[in-house]
Amino acid sequence: MVMKIIGAIILIWLAFVLLGWVFKALGTLLLVAAVVTVGAIAYGAIKGKANQRQIKP
């Protein structure tokens, strides 16, 4: 009976460890995606202004 309780506690602990790892990895991926998106937008804004032609009156 004691071994079943210890086994259940270990399984619950492993489940929480796995969930914590998944959420930490998702947070890191979200941060990387945000930085890449902001960088792509900034690059597009800078590159887009250089290629515009002005209309001369």
Task: Describe the fold and architecture.
With 57 residues, the protein is mostly helical. The protein has one helix and no strands. It has one helix spanning 2-50. The longest helix is centred in the middle third of the chain and has 49 residues, at 2-50. The model has no long low-confidence stretch (mean pLDDT 90).
In short:
The chain is mainly α and 57 residues long. The protein is 86% helix and 0% strand.
Low-confidence stretches: none
Distance between the termini: 91 Å
Structural class label: mainly alpha
Largest sheet: none
> Roughly how many Å is the radius of gyration?
25 Å
The percent range for helix content is: over 70%
Assembly status? single chain
